[in-house]
Design goal:
Rossmann fold, about 200 residues, 6-stranded antiparallel beta sheet, about 35% helix, binds adenosine-5'-triphosphate, alpha+beta
Length: about 200
């Protein structure tokens, strides 16, 4: 899946409608402290179905709505629109995907996919099928980078293994080692019994 465009309105510091085109290749977001770089990454996670206010640096989900400043009143809603292209099929074609999440004060969140009202679960499934989503290791927030740098080698290795999708192999290896030990015990018992029969 390729994210192509992101539109924000009333989302955190993005009080005025803002649109970003994301071109193929590496995208960097630069700007002074507090200009809203992290808010952009949070907008992507939010439209993908993030349901934890804590991971959006807020106390409640409505904290994503522009809260107002000395000169500007708060907004009544926040909306994020994500345009993406699905992965390429064998015949070279892709589908366009438009996901909209909107939250209104006192009314909660609503989602639309390609113009149709859907549930949060449906949105989560679309991104899970594309091996991405609000908790994808591909979305690396600022604190996460510091955590990787400060991590002990063993912790860093665990993070890398999780990102590489091989964390599950450790569980299987442990299972296999247990089975091997049990089989070795059985063989030893068998040898004892055979020795007794001679
Ligand atoms: P830094 O480089 O310091 O990490 P940043 O560019 O990542 O900063 P963000 O953390 O994305 O900046 O943006 C923080 C700004 O967003 C703050 O000025 C904060 O007041 C503003 N902000 C966050 N939530 C809201 C909200 N609900 N309403 C209005 N402004 C908000």
């Amino acid at each position: 899946m390729r994210i192509r465009r992101l539109k924000l309105s009333g989302f955190k510091s993005f009080v005025e409608p803002a649109e970003l085109r994301i071109e193929p290749g590496l995208t960097g977001v630069v700007g002074p402290n507090g200009c809203g770089k992290s808010n952009l990454l949070e907008a992507i996670r939010w439209v993908m179905g993030e349901s934890s206010p804590k991971s959006m640096r807020g106390g409640g989900m409505e904290d994503v709505i522009f809260a107002g400043t000395a000169g500007r009143p708060p907004r009544a809603f926040a909306e994020v629109v994500l345009h993406a292209e699905t992965a390429q099929r064998d015949d070279g074609t892709r589908d366009d995907l438009e996901v909209v999440r909107r939250i209104e004060r006192g009314a909660g969140s609503a989602y639309r996919v390609n113009g149709r009202d859907v549930r949060a679960k449906d949105v989560a499934l679309i991104f899970a099928d594309a091996a991405t989503g609000a908790h994808s290791p591909a979305l690396v927030s600022q604190g996460r980078i510091a955590a990787v740098i400060a991590a002990k080698p063993a912790e860093r290795r665990a993070m890398l293994e999780e990102a590489a999708g091989i964390a599950g192999l450790h569980v299987r290896r442990k299972d296999a080692e247990q089975k091997l030990r049990a089989t070795e015990n059985n063989l030893a018992r068998l040898e004892d019994i055979m020795a007794g029969l001679d």
